[in-house]
Amino acid sequence: MIARLWAAGDLGNRSFMTVAPTGSMLPVLDSNSILLIEKVTGAELRKNDIAVYEITPGGMNIVHRAKEVSPDGVYFEGDNNGRSDGWIKAEKVHWRIAGILYTAP
Question: Into how many domains does the chain fold?
Answer without folding.
Answer: 1
